[in-house]
Prior knowledge:
single chain, alpha+beta, Jelly Rolls, 13-stranded antiparallel β-sheet
Amino acid sequence: MFQSHDRDTLRRQFLGAEPFPFVKIDNFLDPTFASEVAAAYPSFEVAMEQGKTFAAINERRKVQITDASIFPEPVAQLNKLLAASEFLTDLSYVTGIPNLLADERLSGGGMHLTGPGGRLDVHVDFNFIQDRKLHRRLNLLLYLNPIWQDSWGGHIELWDSEVKQCQQAFAPTLNRCVIFETSDISFHGVVPVTPAAPCPRISFATYYYTREPPANWGGKVHSTIFKARPHERLRGYVLMPAAKMQRSLVAGIRKTKQVMKRLIARIG
Length: 268
């Protein structure tokens, strides 16, 4: 189902890329199979009933379906291919990261649909799955839009470590795959999808892990960290800090409830 690509060329591109190791692969899948996967995606409205819908400041009008048991057959096939040992071997060679593991739970991955007016701000991803002791190492994003105009937004952006300059941007066109190293400087985001876009932006995402930490890991575990773009002053100085405070309050309330529940259980 994969198109033939030269591993050595991909390896050179990945290791020499800026602003951090990545590679863009067009015609990633067999064209017929790619079209079958794209055609199998549900409408945005149906997807909202099947998956998790995001409606926060940093991520909104986006649906994420991670339950592989409800994937349409072509998508289920794709998911298995991207987790197969043969593909993991190639991925390790291209990226130079040994002992890569696929995530059978697709935490944060799976089928992604972003509707008109949707957005995903610039961020670095969480770096560790605590309960499974897994270090996140790679993102693989496969775009599946048969028709996509630049004026609709939706481009994947790769930013420098200070989020001062966007150094790479790619339209989410059918059968385009972007693979990049997940690290504390791998800032990336999505250009907001315009309200005028006639269809959702669709993609498939899967992430790869190792049990061993990266060589430069300092031991700090973090969740997703969002940053405003240089021109997004209102978001950077007001909206994002307010959203972060709200998340902290919600987390604090949830933790307090859990503690109270345990105390009540002990008291009997």
